[in-house]
Structures are given as structure tokens and as C-alpha cells.
């Protein structure tokens, strides 16, 4: 009888992408298994065309207690052999326990979660790339911990939408500039973002200011400080279409966040401005294609491809340090990619 496996990953599109190596390794180790993913409506788009996912179970974002328990009962009747909770929040830990899965994996947390919810709690390593961290959670010596490519297969519909977007708005070569963030501590100053976007324009590239819902005003602030025109007014693409459009760009540059992970999945060169300790968790190691411009390198922080400046705060990172990394990224051969990525999904 084939194994029944459940992976729990709610919310956060970028974090969902960082979970995809787990799905790929589970399929490699258990080719006949039925692999389900418990997710939410917001991150279905990342999983719906993944060839390693057989089923998605959607937990509403604000599910009432009765609905939560009904979904838990449905999962319990599946008699899962393996449940992998990559989030290990109180809500997801409780759901893992209610499935009554034979083997339940989750990160070791303080308090009741370890004792009640997981059969094999895993001590989260400090300062490791998130995708590799999740592979370690499987606690299986057969797992390839270097298989950290991010999978985001796209449908023909998303590809067609990307073609239409490019025809309407873009003039290659295009640099996707993500100068906004939901979190203020992740944002490089607006004036510095504008200065780098202007330099990209002087190279003959079209700066495309990428932003999400509710972030248009912040993107317009960057455009208002630029001397060259940038694409800032456009019909916002879906997340899957964004992945397809990124595949047609020459570069991603900007703050850390979900779009950076999409650009990594798309296989284009990336340059991220970040705090050093965050960069080692959210940036893929071991490749010159994905570069960082960071605060100072401190003990215990693993060095990535990039520049570690003599600064303590994100705002202090100088423009020249960032430009050095952009120049290095643009020198990378167009088709070189040391990570493994999925090709565009064929029509069903």
C-alpha cells in the first residue's frame, strides 16, 4: 500500500516556495506515495501545478473552531504515515496532532508542542538557509540537503498572461526592482533605491518597480525621486503571472521578501540588500548568481556571495556596495544556474 504523507504549510507565499524542496525530496524517497499539502487559499497558487503534490486541502484563514475540527477529522481518516509541519505554529502543531499521523515531524519549540504534537521534534539549526533547514526537518539520512532549488511551475494561462503583460508594459532588458516591504526593518532607504534604479536605467535597462497590494504609494515614492522613467503604473499581475514575468527579466534587485524567492525560482540573477544575519537564512548559498549586499559580517554568520559592509544598519549600506554586486550579477552567463528549477508546466 502506498504511503500517505501530509505537509503543512499555511500562508506566506515566499515561505511556501522555500518548502518546495521538501516536496521534491519526499517524492524522490517515496515515489509511490500520495502527498497532500494543507494550505490556505493565498498560497494555493504555488502548489497547484507542483508535480510532487497529489492533493491540496485548504484550511480557511480564519476558520472557526468547528470548521478547524471538521478538517482535522477529515485528515485523521486518511491515516497518514507521515505528517511534516514545516511551520510549527501552535495552530499547525495542533492540527498535526489531531491527524493522529503515525510519524509527526515539527520544529522543537518551548512548551507543550513538543510533548503533545510531534513524535520526532527537530531542533532548528541556527543561521541556515530556510530551504535546507526544512530538508533537515525530514530527519532522514537519504535526503539530499543540497537540493535547494525552488519549484514554481507555471500554467499556460499564467505564461500567456505574462506575454500580454510584457507586450503592454515592458521594454527589455528589464530590471525588476523591489523597493518596498510589509516590514519597515527590511527596507533600504527610498532615495538609495531610486539612485540604483537610475543607474540601471543609464545602462539601458527598464526599471520595473515591483510591489504588492497596498504598496503602490511606496513604489511611487521611489519613482518620484528618480531622474529616469520607471514602470510603476500597471495592472498588478497574479503571483503565478509574476513568476512567469520574472523569467523574462534580466535581473532582480531589492529588499528581501516573497518576490526575491520568486525571482530565485525563475532562475534570474538576484541582488538583495539585507541585514547579514537575515541574508544567510533567506538567500541561497553557494552560487554567485544570487548575491547580497549586507551589513557587517559577524561571528556565526555564514558568508554568501556578496559584499559585507562596515555598517550596522540596513540604511547605512552604501550605494556603491550594492552596485558592485549588481555588476557582478549581470556578468553571470544568461543560462547558468547552479540551483535546480522546474520548467514551465506543459498543457494538461
Short description:
This protein has 348 residues and is α/β, with parallel strands linked by helices.
Low-confidence stretches: 335-348
Q: Name the shape in a single word.
A: globular
User: From the alpha-carbon coordinates, what is the Rg to the nearest angstrom?
Assistant: 21 Å
Main sheet strand line-up: 3-2-1-4-5-6
Class from helix and strand fractions: alpha/beta
Q: What is the string of SSEs from the N terminus onward?
A: EHHEHEHEHEHEHHEHEHHEHEHEEH
How many strands, which pairing sense, and closed or not: the largest β-sheet?
6 strands, parallel
User: Given the structure, what is the number of helices?
Assistant: 14
**Mean pLDDT, nearest integer?**
93
- Oligomeric grouping of the chains: single chain
**Within the CATH hierarchy, at the fold level, what is the topology of the largest domain?**
Rossmann fold
Binned strand content:
15-25%
Can you walk me through this structure?
Helix 5 (90-98) links the parallel strand 4 (82-85) and strand 5. The longest helix is centred in the middle third of the chain and has 14 residues, at 156-169. The two termini are 27 Å apart. Helix 8 crosses helix 11 (239-246). This protein has 2 domains: 4-137, 3-Layer(aba) Sandwich (Rossmann fold); 157-330, Rossmann fold (3-Layer(aba) Sandwich), CATH 3.40.50. The strands form 2 sheets. A 6-stranded parallel β-sheet has the order 3-2-1-4-5-6, sandwiched between helices. The chain is globular, with a radius of gyration of 21 Å. With 348 residues, it is α/β, with parallel strands linked by helices. The chain has helices at 13-17, 20-29, 44-47, 65-76, 90-98, 112-117, 130-137, 156-169, 190-202, 216-224, 239-246, 258-266, 276-282, 319-330, and strands spanning 4-8, 34-39, 55-58, 82-85, 103-107, 120-122, 174-178, 206-209, 251-255, 270-274, 290-294, 306-308.
Amino acid at each position: 500500500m502506498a504511503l500517505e504523507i501530509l505537509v503543512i504549510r499555511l500562508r506566506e507565499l515566499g515561505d511556501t516556495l522555500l518548502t518546495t524542496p521538501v516536496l521534491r525530496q519526499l517524492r524522490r524517497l517515496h515515489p509511490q506515495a500520495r502527498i497532500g499539502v494543507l494550505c490556505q487559499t493565498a498560497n494555493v497558487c504555488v502548489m497547484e501545478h507542483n508535480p510532487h503534490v497529489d492533493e491540496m486541502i485548504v484550511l480557511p484563514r480564519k476558520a472557526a473552531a468547528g470548521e478547524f475540527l471538521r478538517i482535522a477529522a477529515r485528515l485523521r481518516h486518511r491515516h497518514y504515515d507521515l505528517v511534516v509541519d514545516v511551520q510549527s505554529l501552535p495552530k499547525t502543531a495542533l492540527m498535526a496532532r489531531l491527524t493522529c499521523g503515525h510519524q509527526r515531524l515539527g520544529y522543537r519549540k518551548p512548551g507543550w508542542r513538543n510533548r503533545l504534537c510531534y513524535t520526532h521534534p527537530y531542533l532548528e539549526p541556527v543561521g541556515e538557509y530556510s530551504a535546507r533547514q526544512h530538508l533537515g526537518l525530514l530527519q532522514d539520512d537519504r535526503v539530499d540537503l543540497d537540493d535547494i532549488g525552488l519549484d514554481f511551475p507555471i500554467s499556460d494561462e499564467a505564461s500567456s498572461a505574462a506575454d500580454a503583460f510584457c507586450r503592454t508594459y515592458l521594454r527589455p532588458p528589464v530590471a525588476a526592482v523591489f523597493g518596498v516591504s510589509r516590514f519597515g526593518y527590511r527596507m533600504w532607504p527610498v532615495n538609495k533605491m531610486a539612485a540604483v534604479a537610475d543607474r540601471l536605467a543609464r545602462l539601458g535597462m527598464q526599471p520595473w518597480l515591483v510591489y504588492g497590494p497596498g504598496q503602490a504609494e511606496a513604489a511611487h515614492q521611489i519613482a518620484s525621486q528618480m531622474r529616469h522613467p520607471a514602470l510603476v503604473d500597471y495592472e498588478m499581475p497574479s503571483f503565478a503571472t509574476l513568476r512567469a514575468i520574472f523569467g523574462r527579466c534580466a535581473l532582480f534587485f531589492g529588499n528581501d521578501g516573497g518576490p526575491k524567492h520568486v525571482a530565485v525560482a525563475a532562475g534570474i540573477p538576484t541582488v538583495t540588500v539585507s541585514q547579514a544575519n537575515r541574508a544567510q537564512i533567506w538567500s541561497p548559498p553557494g552560487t554567485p548568481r544570487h548575491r547580497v549586499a549586507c551589513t557587517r559580517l559577524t561571528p556565526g554568520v555564514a558568508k554568501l556571495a556578496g559584499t559585507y559592509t562596515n555598517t550596522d544598519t540596513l540604511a547605512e549600506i552604501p550605494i556603491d556596495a550594492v552596485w558592485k554586486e549588481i555588476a557582478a550579477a549581470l556578468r553571470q552567463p544568461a543560462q547558468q544556474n547552479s540551483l535546480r528549477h522546474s520548467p514551465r508546466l506543459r498543457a494538461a
